[in-house]
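Tokens as discussed.
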């Protein structure tokens, strides 16, 4: 990656960004200008710096060799407007807390990317008038922190808003043009088929605008997945979507493809262990994929007391692990061997009995449980003759294998 030269103050940089066409070089408050290799930004796990009991990045770096962190999430202000905030509440312009964390990471030879969007919340693409003003808001973030990488996490509910996605993709293209060498990733929902209708529409929007980021990443979890093999299958299918959308050959599509997983217990009760991460890591490296990351470092530690997959937490994984076990897979992807430690064996979960088999003629209401395809499922609302797992947004919640 080419370095961004420190030549302009923040105010001048934002003024240029608003124009949306002038090449831009940046400086940040701490004066750091050196960039890591793209591979590190591609391997950076997500970390919430202000919520979910943020871990100490320095401790993670010392324990694993990790160098890059994906800080999340920049949103529009909760009260509306077109200025960047952390989580909708903390203004980027007046921030000192996140800047302090970034300075500490850089002091140890690391760096950060910043992720915008995420699940829920109000995104700047929804509140800013157009792509240029959206880009100007994000440029404030790039300039404030002297960023060499940024992630557009485009998912529900924003990616259902055509105008918002047009603004986000347009903003990403402007940032890419105005910040030479900026590493840009675009992350969206994953399904068994690769990505859903809205994800495909986002790709078509990128194609129509002539925008190609470093990668398009999918999140193959919360959609009825069952371990690493189901995730690699989704990545194979997503590769085909990239080929057909952009006219790429298979190798080119893989070179622009990324994986963003969830360590431990997902929101819908799927379990992804260390061995699942190894399965996907092997696939990603053998296919020369561009990105391997996960949500999140805040969760990369064992729950206290251990709960063996019984709940989903924002601050622990709900699987048996040593702290930062999952971060070591990011380090491996970046091409660096983490410090030698005694590995934690992945436990074999006790077998779960199957509920009464699902029937196409029966009527189910919220809370009813059935079994189908060797998984137990719980109804989220009234349903009849809707096959469990057939739709990502269907009436059934996957409760795991039985």
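Sequence:
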């Amino acid at each position: 990656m080419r370095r961004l030269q420190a030549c302009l103050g923040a105010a001048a940089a934002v003024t240029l960004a608003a124009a949306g066409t002038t090449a831009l070089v940046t400086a940040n408050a701490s004066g750091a200008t050196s960039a890591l290799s793209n591979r590190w930004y591609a391997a950076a796990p997500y970390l919430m710096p202000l919520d979910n009991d943020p871990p100490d990045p320095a401790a993670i770096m010392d324990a694993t060799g990790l160098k890059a962190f994906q800080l999340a999430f920049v949103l529009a202000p909760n009260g509306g407007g077109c200025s960047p905030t952390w989580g909708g509440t903390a203004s980027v312009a007046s921030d000192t807390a996140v800047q302090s964390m970034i300075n500490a990471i850089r002091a140890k030879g690391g760096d950060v990317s910043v992720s915008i969007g995420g699940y829920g919340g109000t995104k700047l693409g929804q509140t800013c008038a157009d792509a240029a003003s959206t880009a100007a808001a994000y440029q404030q973030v790039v300039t404030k922190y002297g960023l060499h990488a940024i992630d557009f996490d485009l998912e529900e509910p924003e990616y259902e808003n055509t105008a918002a996605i047009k603004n986000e993709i347009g903003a990403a293209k402007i940032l890419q043009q105005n910040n030479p060498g900026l590493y840009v990733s675009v992350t969206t929902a994953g399904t068994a088929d690769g990505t859903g209708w809205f994800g495909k529409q986002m790709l078509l929007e990128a194609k129509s605008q002539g925008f190609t980021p470093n990668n398009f990443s999918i999140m193959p979890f919360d959609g009825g997945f069952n371990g690493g093999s189901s995730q690699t299958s989704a990545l194979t299918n997503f590769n085909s979507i990239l080929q057909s959308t952009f006219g790429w050959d298979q190798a080119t599509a893989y070179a622009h493809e990324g994986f963003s997983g969830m360590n431990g217990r997902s929101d819908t009760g799927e379990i992804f262990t260390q061995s699942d991460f190894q399965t996907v890591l092997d696939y990603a490296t053998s296919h020369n994929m561009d990105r391997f990351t996960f949500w999140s470092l805040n969760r990369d530690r064992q729950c206290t007391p251990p709960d063996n997959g019984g709940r989903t937490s924002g601050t622990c994984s709900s699987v048996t692990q040593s702290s930062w076990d999952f971060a070591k897979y990011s380090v491996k992807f970046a091409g660096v061997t983490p410090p030698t430690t005694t590995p934690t064996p992945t436990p074999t979960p006790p077998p779960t009995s199957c509920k009464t088999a699902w029937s196409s003629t029966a009527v189910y209401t919220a809370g009813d449980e059935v079994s189908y395809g060797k998984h137990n499922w719980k109804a989220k609302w009234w349903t009849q003759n809707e096959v469990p797992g057939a739709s990502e947004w269907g009436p059934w919640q996957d409760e795991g294998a039985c």
